[in-house]
Amino acid sequence: MRRGDLLCVPTGSLRKAHSTIDDLMHLYSANFKLYDMNGQMADLPLPLVSHIGIKSDLIGLFRELSNAWVRKEAGYLIKTRGLLLVIIHRLIELILLKKDSASTDYRVKKAISYISENYASNITVKELADMVGLNAVYFGALFKKETGMLVHQYLAQTRINHAQDMLQNGECNVSEAAERCGYKDLSHFRKQFKMIKGYTPSHCLRA
Protein backbone atom coordinates (compact mmCIF):
# COMPACT_ATOMS: atom_id res chain seq x y z
CA MET A 1 0.00 0.00 0.00
CA ARG A 2 1.14 3.55 -0.68
CA ARG A 3 -0.17 7.06 -0.15
CA GLY A 4 -3.52 7.59 -1.87
CA ASP A 5 -4.45 3.88 -1.93
CA LEU A 6 -7.84 2.51 -0.89
CA LEU A 7 -8.02 -0.98 0.62
CA CYS A 8 -11.40 -2.74 0.73
CA VAL A 9 -11.07 -5.71 3.07
CA PRO A 10 -13.83 -8.33 2.55
CA THR A 11 -15.85 -9.53 5.55
CA GLY A 12 -14.21 -12.40 7.42
CA SER A 13 -10.72 -11.75 6.06
CA LEU A 14 -7.62 -12.12 8.20
CA ARG A 15 -5.21 -9.24 7.82
CA LYS A 16 -2.20 -7.60 9.40
CA ALA A 17 -0.15 -4.54 8.57
CA HIS A 18 2.97 -2.73 9.61
CA SER A 19 4.25 0.73 8.82
CA THR A 20 7.62 1.66 7.36
CA ILE A 21 9.42 4.12 9.60
CA ASP A 22 10.86 6.02 6.63
CA ASP A 23 7.52 6.25 4.80
CA LEU A 24 4.84 6.98 7.39
CA MET A 25 1.32 7.98 6.33
CA HIS A 26 -2.08 8.73 7.82
CA LEU A 27 -4.69 5.97 7.79
CA TYR A 28 -8.47 6.41 7.85
CA SER A 29 -10.67 3.37 8.27
CA ALA A 30 -14.32 2.41 8.64
CA ASN A 31 -15.73 -0.99 9.59
CA PHE A 32 -19.27 -1.56 8.35
CA LYS A 33 -21.80 -4.01 6.96
CA LEU A 34 -23.51 -3.24 3.66
CA TYR A 35 -27.06 -4.31 2.81
CA ASP A 36 -28.99 -4.18 -0.47
CA MET A 37 -32.51 -2.78 -0.88
CA ASN A 38 -33.96 -6.16 0.14
CA GLY A 39 -32.07 -6.22 3.42
CA GLN A 40 -29.59 -8.86 2.25
CA MET A 41 -25.86 -8.62 2.94
CA ALA A 42 -24.00 -7.13 -0.02
CA ASP A 43 -20.38 -6.68 -1.03
CA LEU A 44 -18.90 -3.30 -1.87
CA PRO A 45 -18.43 -3.37 -5.68
CA LEU A 46 -14.83 -2.14 -5.51
CA PRO A 47 -11.46 -3.84 -6.12
CA LEU A 48 -9.32 -4.99 -3.20
CA VAL A 49 -6.84 -2.16 -3.81
CA SER A 50 -7.40 1.05 -5.78
CA HIS A 51 -5.25 4.14 -6.10
CA ILE A 52 -7.44 7.23 -5.78
CA GLY A 53 -4.82 9.80 -4.80
CA ILE A 54 -5.00 12.33 -1.97
CA LYS A 55 -8.52 13.80 -1.98
CA SER A 56 -8.96 16.57 0.58
CA ASP A 57 -12.75 16.28 0.55
CA LEU A 58 -12.56 12.53 1.32
CA ILE A 59 -10.08 13.13 4.11
CA GLY A 60 -12.46 15.71 5.56
CA LEU A 61 -15.37 13.24 5.38
CA PHE A 62 -13.36 10.50 7.11
CA ARG A 63 -12.30 12.89 9.85
CA GLU A 64 -15.88 14.02 10.38
CA LEU A 65 -17.04 10.39 10.44
CA SER A 66 -14.40 9.47 13.01
CA ASN A 67 -15.20 12.46 15.23
CA ALA A 68 -18.95 11.79 15.13
CA TRP A 69 -18.42 8.12 16.00
CA VAL A 70 -16.09 8.84 18.92
CA ARG A 71 -18.21 11.65 20.40
CA LYS A 72 -21.44 9.64 20.14
CA GLU A 73 -23.72 12.64 20.55
CA ALA A 74 -27.49 12.32 20.15
CA GLY A 75 -28.31 11.15 16.63
CA TYR A 76 -24.73 10.07 15.88
CA LEU A 77 -25.79 6.78 14.23
CA ILE A 78 -27.83 8.62 11.60
CA LYS A 79 -25.01 11.09 11.04
CA THR A 80 -22.28 8.45 10.72
CA ARG A 81 -24.36 6.31 8.36
CA GLY A 82 -25.04 9.35 6.22
CA LEU A 83 -21.36 10.29 6.11
CA LEU A 84 -20.37 6.72 5.24
CA LEU A 85 -22.86 6.64 2.35
CA VAL A 86 -21.42 9.91 1.01
CA ILE A 87 -17.92 8.40 1.25
CA ILE A 88 -19.01 5.22 -0.56
CA HIS A 89 -20.69 7.26 -3.30
CA ARG A 90 -17.53 9.32 -3.73
CA LEU A 91 -15.37 6.19 -3.99
CA ILE A 92 -17.69 4.59 -6.54
CA GLU A 93 -17.63 7.81 -8.53
CA LEU A 94 -13.82 7.89 -8.54
CA ILE A 95 -13.14 4.20 -9.09
CA LEU A 96 -16.04 2.77 -11.09
CA LEU A 97 -17.40 5.83 -12.89
CA LYS A 98 -13.94 7.29 -13.47
CA LYS A 99 -14.99 10.86 -12.72
CA ASP A 100 -14.16 13.42 -10.07
CA SER A 101 -17.01 15.83 -9.37
CA ALA A 102 -14.83 17.74 -6.90
CA SER A 103 -12.61 18.90 -9.75
CA THR A 104 -15.47 20.14 -11.96
CA ASP A 105 -14.88 23.68 -13.25
CA TYR A 106 -16.54 26.19 -10.90
CA ARG A 107 -18.29 27.90 -13.83
CA VAL A 108 -19.89 24.64 -14.90
CA LYS A 109 -20.90 23.97 -11.28
CA LYS A 110 -22.58 27.37 -11.18
CA ALA A 111 -24.46 26.63 -14.41
CA ILE A 112 -25.55 23.20 -13.14
CA SER A 113 -26.83 24.76 -9.93
CA TYR A 114 -28.78 27.34 -11.94
CA ILE A 115 -30.30 24.63 -14.15
CA SER A 116 -31.36 22.56 -11.13
CA GLU A 117 -33.25 25.55 -9.70
CA ASN A 118 -34.67 26.94 -12.95
CA TYR A 119 -35.12 23.86 -15.18
CA ALA A 120 -38.69 24.81 -16.05
CA SER A 121 -37.55 28.14 -17.52
CA ASN A 122 -36.48 28.74 -21.11
CA ILE A 123 -32.74 28.42 -20.40
CA THR A 124 -30.30 29.05 -23.25
CA VAL A 125 -26.59 28.41 -23.67
CA LYS A 126 -26.02 32.15 -24.11
CA GLU A 127 -27.83 32.90 -20.85
CA LEU A 128 -25.65 30.45 -18.94
CA ALA A 129 -22.48 31.63 -20.70
CA ASP A 130 -23.25 35.28 -19.86
CA MET A 131 -23.91 34.30 -16.26
CA VAL A 132 -20.40 32.87 -15.86
CA GLY A 133 -18.69 35.45 -18.08
CA LEU A 134 -17.75 33.22 -21.02
CA ASN A 135 -18.27 33.16 -24.75
CA ALA A 136 -21.24 30.91 -25.62
CA VAL A 137 -19.21 28.62 -27.90
CA TYR A 138 -16.39 28.22 -25.36
CA PHE A 139 -18.85 27.64 -22.53
CA GLY A 140 -20.72 24.99 -24.52
CA ALA A 141 -17.46 23.13 -25.19
CA LEU A 142 -16.40 23.43 -21.54
CA PHE A 143 -19.76 22.13 -20.32
CA LYS A 144 -19.54 19.13 -22.66
CA LYS A 145 -15.98 18.39 -21.51
CA GLU A 146 -16.93 18.53 -17.83
CA THR A 147 -20.29 16.72 -17.92
CA GLY A 148 -20.09 14.57 -21.05
CA MET A 149 -23.30 16.19 -22.34
CA LEU A 150 -24.29 19.22 -24.35
CA VAL A 151 -26.18 21.88 -22.40
CA HIS A 152 -29.51 21.09 -24.07
CA GLN A 153 -29.02 17.37 -23.35
CA TYR A 154 -28.29 18.04 -19.68
CA LEU A 155 -31.29 20.36 -19.41
CA ALA A 156 -33.59 17.81 -21.08
CA GLN A 157 -32.41 15.03 -18.78
CA THR A 158 -32.94 17.24 -15.72
CA ARG A 159 -36.46 18.12 -16.83
CA ILE A 160 -37.40 14.54 -17.63
CA ASN A 161 -36.03 13.28 -14.31
CA HIS A 162 -38.20 15.79 -12.48
CA ALA A 163 -41.20 14.83 -14.59
CA GLN A 164 -40.62 11.17 -13.82
CA ASP A 165 -40.61 11.91 -10.08
CA MET A 166 -43.82 13.92 -10.35
CA LEU A 167 -45.58 11.13 -12.23
CA GLN A 168 -44.37 8.34 -9.97
CA ASN A 169 -45.35 10.29 -6.86
CA GLY A 170 -48.85 10.83 -8.24
CA GLU A 171 -48.51 14.60 -8.06
CA CYS A 172 -49.97 15.22 -11.48
CA ASN A 173 -50.95 13.75 -14.85
CA VAL A 174 -48.77 13.69 -17.96
CA SER A 175 -49.81 17.07 -19.36
CA GLU A 176 -49.37 18.76 -15.96
CA ALA A 177 -45.91 17.23 -15.53
CA ALA A 178 -44.91 18.45 -18.99
CA GLU A 179 -46.04 21.99 -18.21
CA ARG A 180 -44.38 22.06 -14.80
CA CYS A 181 -41.09 20.97 -16.35
CA GLY A 182 -41.06 23.64 -19.04
CA TYR A 183 -42.59 21.83 -22.02
CA LYS A 184 -45.12 23.76 -24.05
CA ASP A 185 -45.58 20.94 -26.58
CA LEU A 186 -46.98 17.74 -25.04
CA SER A 187 -46.00 15.67 -28.07
CA HIS A 188 -42.39 16.84 -27.80
CA PHE A 189 -42.42 16.02 -24.08
CA ARG A 190 -43.65 12.47 -24.72
CA LYS A 191 -41.06 11.94 -27.45
CA GLN A 192 -38.19 13.26 -25.35
CA PHE A 193 -39.31 11.29 -22.30
CA LYS A 194 -39.37 8.04 -24.33
CA MET A 195 -35.97 8.81 -25.86
CA ILE A 196 -34.32 9.44 -22.47
CA LYS A 197 -36.08 6.85 -20.31
CA GLY A 198 -36.91 4.15 -22.86
CA TYR A 199 -40.60 4.13 -21.95
CA THR A 200 -43.53 6.53 -22.14
CA PRO A 201 -44.46 8.97 -19.33
CA SER A 202 -47.77 7.14 -18.90
CA HIS A 203 -45.77 4.13 -17.71
CA CYS A 204 -44.85 6.09 -14.57
CA LEU A 205 -48.41 6.86 -13.49
CA ARG A 206 -49.44 5.25 -10.24
CA ALA A 207 -52.21 2.68 -10.52
List keywords for this structure.
4 strands; single chain; two-stranded antiparallel ribbon; 5% strand; 207 residues; mainly alpha
Structure description:
The strands form two sheets. The protein has a two-stranded antiparallel sheet. A two-stranded antiparallel sheet has the order 2-3. With 207 residues, it is mostly helical. It is built from eight helices and four strands. The chain has helices at 56-71, 76-95, 106-118, 125-131, 136-147, 151-168, 174-180, 186-197; strands at residues 5-7, 34-35, 41-42, 49-51. Helix 1 (56-71) packs antiparallel against helix 2 and helix 4 packs across helix 5. The termini are far apart. The model has no long low-confidence stretch (mean pLDDT 92). The protein is globular.
Helix and strand element order: EEEEHHHHHHHH
> Low-confidence runs (pLDDT<50, min 5 residues)?
none
Largest sheet: 2 strands, antiparallel
Fraction in beta strands:
under 5%
Provide the residue-averaged pLDDT.
Answer: 92
What does this entry show, briefly?
By secondary structure, the protein is mostly helical.
Secondary-structure map:
Layout: E1 5-7, E2 34-35, E3 41-42, E4 49-51, H1 56-71, H2 76-95, H3 106-118, H4 125-131, H5 136-147, H6 151-168, H7 174-180, H8 186-197
Antiparallel strand pairs: 1-4, 2-3
Helix pairs in contact: 1-2, 4-5, 6-7
